[in-house]
Specification:
This protein is an alpha/beta fold. Helices cover about 40% and strands about 20% of the residues. It has helices at about 5-10, 15-25, 40-50, 60-75, 95-100, 115-125, 165-170, 175-190, 205-215; strands at about 80-85, 105-110, 140-145, 155-160, 190-200, 220-230, 235-245. Strands 3-2-1-4-5-7-6 form a seven-stranded mixed beta sheet, sandwiched between helices. Strand 2 (about 105-110), helix 6 and strand 3 (about 140-145) form a beta-alpha-beta unit. The radius of gyration is 18 Å and the shape is globular. The relative contact order is 0.15.
């Protein structure tokens, strides 16, 4: 039985310091630090750029879950069209599937620092031939570092992080990289917007991690989670991080 179910069922106390030390150890068991390096992704996508790669959860599952949430968010903000950031899009189908199926008008910004990944996305999105779920919907391709986003403050209503933070955390200085990324995401996120993180990291680990970033970076937000998908091996989670709008400039 997973730890987060034990915590929930028996209301067991958790020592933040001890647990976070264990978290760091658990993340460092496997040597996959290349996942945080630009050169690794440049070589991978240049070599394997014609092959779709959806980490963790298939794009159809993601789209099915997020579409009603996006619709609700549009009503909440009162905006005609929502700006959506796919943070570290890679060669995932998520932008194309959302653009094709989502009835809410959206502009999806595919951001990655790999030119190969963006070229792959360009081909996939052009193949839609403007067959979008809404006639107002469109997309943009932006080559950028997720820790230094080239967008103005409060620009995005939605930020989708599907395994990108997980990749950053594989680095030796991954925690600090994740802090930098979260600070910039906080800057570009609309006061009423949502950051959605998709990961297989258990809530007893991820929620402590989010709390640690909130404390270190002096950010204010609330975090919650739901099980997005379960199989025989893993549970996959959707974490919703909502800004404290009173703390936004």
């Amino acid at each position: 039985m997973r730890c987060y179910f034990l915590l929930k069922r028996f209301n067991l106390p958790v020592s933040f310091q001890n647990t976070f030390t264990c978290v760091q150890h658990k993340r460092n068991i496997y040597d996959d630090s290349n996942l945080s390096k630009r050169e690794y992704w440049r070589k991978r996508y240049n070599w394997d750029k014609q092959v779709k790669m959806d980490w963790l959860v298939d794009a159809d599952e993601v789209s099915q879950n997020l579409e009603p949430k996006i619709q609700q968010l549009r009503k909440k903000t009162g905006e005609v069209c929502l700006n959506i950031l796919d943070l570290g899009c890679g060669t995932s189908d998520v932008p194309a599937v959302l653009l094709k199926r989502c009835k809410t008008p959206v502009i999806i910004y595919c951001v990655d620092y790999s030119e190969g990944a963006l070229q792959w996305q360009k081909g996939l999105l052009e193949d839609l031939d403007q067959k979008h779920g809404n006639l107002l919907s469109n997309y943009r391709l932006v080559m950028a570092d997720v820790c230094q986003l080239p967008f103005k403050n409060n620009f995005f209503h939605v930020v989708i992080d599907k395994g990108t933070t997980d990749s950053l955390l594989k680095s030796k200085d991954g925690h600090q990289m994740a802090v930098s990324c979260m600070k910039d995401v906080h800057r570009v996120l609309h006061p009423l917007g949502n950051l959605w993180q998709i990961t297989d990291e258990d809530p007893d680990i991820r929620l402590l991690f989010l709390q640690s970033i909130q404390d270190e970076a002096n950010l204010k937000y609330s975090s919650s989670f739901e099980v997005l998908l379960s199989d025989d091996i893993n549970d996959y989670f959707l974490y919703t991080i909502k800004e404290d709008s009173l703390d936004k400039p």
